Amino acid sequence: MRQFLSYLLVISTFILVHSCQKEVSLEIEHTPSQGSLQNDANGNCLPKKLNGAFIAGVALVPDSNTLQVTVNVTKTGSYSISSDTINGYYFKSTGIFSTTGVVQVTLKGNGNPLTNGVNNFTISYGSSSCIFPVSVLPAGSGPSIFTLAGSPGNCTGAVVNGVYVTGVALSFNNTVTITVNVTKIGSYNITTSFQGMTFSGSGVFSTTGAQTVTLNGSGTPVTAGVNTIPITAGSTSCSFQVNVTSPAAGTISCGSAVLSGLYVVNTTLTPGDSVILQVNVTTAGAYNISTNTVNGFGFSGSGQFATTGTQNVTLTGTGTPNSIGNATFTVTFGGSNCNFPVNVKDIDYFPRTVNSNWSYETNNNASDSLQLHVIPNTFSLSGNTYNIFMVTNGPVTDTFGYYRRNANDYYIYKDISYFGFDNPVWGEYIFLKDTPAGTTWTSNSFSGTVQGNPVTVRIRFTINTPRDVSTSITSSTGTRNYYNTIVVKEELEGYDGTNWSSLTSSVGYILDYYARNVGMILKEFYNGSGTMSGMLTLRRSVVY
């Protein structure tokens, strides 16, 4: 009996443990993952990989006709990534993300391409998307005919990308681009392996002539030094060189970390979002340093340490922050690690944080400038609290205006006597909205006298371009590109006692450019004929 009870106890424990494991597994399986597809500034999936031949009238083979996209996973769980259906076919993948971070996902093709040409698919995952072009060959097309440029010697113009370190598996950053001369359009499949590394690529050539092909690396290098890798295609062959190094060693410190860029919720990081850390290299060689993924983004960098000693290393940020607040990152190099914080801010096109300041120059004249800055004091009126902006123009500092924000509306309270009124006329109005292009609104009316004559005016505002356009501005400090900009048009309207009418043809209009988490970067003044008559250009800003 005692043995029987012991047996029952073991069986019960087994069932309990495995039931719990199954419950956890099912919980992950039925909980949707979170993350975003990675893309470039133009919305193209990046990095990406296409496999197989796509020929009009030929049904796709799901295991052969695939495309690969990159996802930054911020929360584990189930996923479904798919394309739209174009020209009779589509791509889809479902599964479970069991870890966070940057991963590659393969989508299988289904359907039958109807006609030849280039199909631009939109790949969707959650609220993110990216564009993936696929070329379809004409019906009846078979394998292409091509030769390798440089055969039988070195592959002409070969470009090797990525860092190659013994014992470190290759990633999507490890590629080589070669040149081929196509004499017959069709499908291609190029593969070569050497010293633990494999480079391969497949697809279609839709035109003849000289073209480039990108081969994606896989495997793990086993031999340090210059590796001469041969490629054979048909009756031609050539070779390219890959320099494989031994890994660097040393320690890393975050005490003097220098963070650059803007970190804004739901905004994909750009190359300017980076951190500089200090390392003490004890063994020169290749490095691949990265942080953990926190709040949807992380930092990484790779390269070569040519010498030992203390030096700086730059890690570039990737991903999309998904919540506001401080995120603490852990970075590891050798046997050491350290932490540094990153503050993710809310989307704000006109920051009003204390001590933030902006310097502008007039009409591209470096010696004619003014500065705006936010002071700690606030101003209250009718239950609203405003941040106070001061302006310094030469030796004179004065109040510039009182600003507040409510949701997507930005307000200013100020004296608008600059319209030409004889006496001060104070009022509040919305000067900026975070809304789509074409949105228009007007201020309240403002009444006073101009040279003794009664005048009533108001301002009409219009979101002039699609929100988050890219704007490049040039000042005495150089040219800078702002990726997320809203452009607002200001026009004056007059009231004759019965009707409102536009005064644009007589007094002109103003275009204001506001960059996300920077503020106003440019103000352009136009006369009644539409010719620019002046401008204020941002040359420096510090936003806290």
Architecture overview:
The structure is a single chain. β22 (325-333) and β23 (336-344) form a beta hairpin. The protein is globular and about 90 Å long. The termini are far apart. The chain has helices at 2-30, 504-507, and strands at 34-37, 49-51, 66-75, 77-83, 89-97, 101-111, 117-125, 128-136, 145-148, 159-161, 175-184, 186-194, 197-205, 209-219, 225-233, 236-244, 249-260, 274-283, 285-290, 297-305, 309-319, 325-333, 336-344, 357-362, 365-381, 384-393, 396-406, 409-415, 426-433, 440-442, 446-450, 453-463, 469-475, 478-495, 500-502, 509-515, 519-526, 532-542. It has 2 helices and 38 strands.
Number of helices: 2
Poorly predicted parts = 1-29
Per CATH, which architecture of the largest domain? Beta Barrel
Counting structural domains, the number is 4
